Amino acid sequence: MSAFVEQWRVWHAERERALADPYGWLALISLDWLSEVPATYSAAPGVWWQDAEAAYVDPRGDELFYEGEPITGVQRFELVNSGAGVRVSAGDVEVEVARRSGYLIRVHSPKAPALREFRGVPAYEPDPEWALTGVFEPFAEPKPTTVGAVTPGLNHVYQAPGVVRFERGGVEHALTAFNGKSGNGLNILFTDATSGVTTYPANRSVATGEPAADGTVTLDFNRAVNLPCAFTDFATCPLPPEGNHLPFEVTAGELLPYERSGK
């Protein structure tokens, strides 16, 4: 028990350090959707626009850098929808370019109020009973799965490699899984009976390692985390797939952030 708790505390401390990154999610100060008309935005230097395939920036006298090199003319960014973004640096801020159906830009600043006021992430006390064993059942082929988003009218499409089945209280449950963010393991978006009560209403996620040869995985709900939208209004997080609501209280993992609870 003591080793389990200590491992969780080490993990939780690293999680909070990552959130406090000066150019991470808490550093966001703006979100703007690009149009086909070149335009300037209050928090982002340069002139920005998009077409059906890519986003563009023209420095127009501002000092912008991409991948360590100065941008001297129009720079084009063609990105994967719902995939990773790229960063353009300008002074002490970074402009993230991402594709979420259309293109958007978000400015990260180490002087962001949310970063300055960050007090850590409240969480349930770790409990080894919430480290459950599941079985991964792969689909014959990964299924493109469309999910909604916390941003109204926006959808995300992810490849779902299969489902994870597990038992709780003698009842079997199945959760659609996506590929892990690092390219290894699985990532599962879910809600449960605590959502909107003690935990963030839209979603939480729990990651697993690579399934064993017999398909078994560990679903450690003690490490269920909030998505960026729980901390900032400048995120466009996906909602869980249909069917990924657990009809019982998962009293483990991260709670509603202080920033959302008013505490």
UniProtKB/TrEMBL annotation:
Name the UniProt record assigns to this protein: DUF1684 domain-containing protein
Pfam families, per the entry: DUF1684 (PF07920)
InterPro entries in UniProt: DUF1684
PANTHER family for the chain: DUF1684 DOMAIN-CONTAINING PROTEIN
Top-level division of the source organism's lineage: Bacteria
Organism: Saccharopolyspora flava
